[in-house]
Amino acid sequence: MPIGETMFELISKQSLIILPLILAGAVSLYLSVNFTQSRPKAISPSGSEEGSPMAANEFGVTVDKNPTQSKLTELGISTWPKWSCGPSKFPWSFSATETMYLLEGKVNVEVDGKEGSFTIGAGDFVVFPKGMKVTWDVIEAVNKHYSLEE
């Protein structure tokens, strides 16, 4: 110990070196835990993953163009009722929230009161909210599974 330095002064100087190293390690650990691990996604009542990077919101309609097979299996999609329709164009009003998985087909959807349209097709997992009014333009015959929620 240098002359004139107390034990307290020596410990204080070492703390100035060690403390920043401890803080840097703690910050590094926090960042690695909070920003590199995948976080669980919230599941809405319809079963769609909120905030899913594969899901897009089209005029208030959630369209997941790439649902995982595990998601489809977990929701029991194959046990849902089926609906089919040939090429046609008609207005539709959703009296309940409708979740659907299109097995085949292609539909151009126009939402009442909105400019433009969007297309859904085979392999899409789609949620239409209750009360929405649309026009379906079935371009290719549709075959889908669906589930209704009041």
UniProtKB/TrEMBL annotation:
SUPFAM superfamilies according to UniProt = RmlC-like cupins
The UniProt transmembrane annotation reads 15-33
The keyword Transcription is annotated on this UniProt entry: no
Q: Which residues form the (S)-ureidoglycine aminohydrolase cupin domain?
A: 73-146
Which InterPro entries does the protein's record reference?
RmlC-like_jellyroll, RmlC_Cupin_sf, UGlyAH_Cupin_dom
The alphabetical list of record keywords is: Membrane, Transmembrane, Transmembrane helix
Keyword Membrane annotated: yes
Q: From what organism does this protein derive?
A: Malus domestica
Q: Do you know which PANTHER family this protein is assigned to?
A: OS04G0445200 PROTEIN (PTHR33271), RMLC-LIKE JELLY ROLL PROTEIN-RELATED (PTHR33271:SF1)
Instruction: List the Pfam families hit by this protein, alphabetically.
Output: Cupin_3
Q: What is this protein called?
A: (S)-ureidoglycine aminohydrolase cupin domain-containing protein
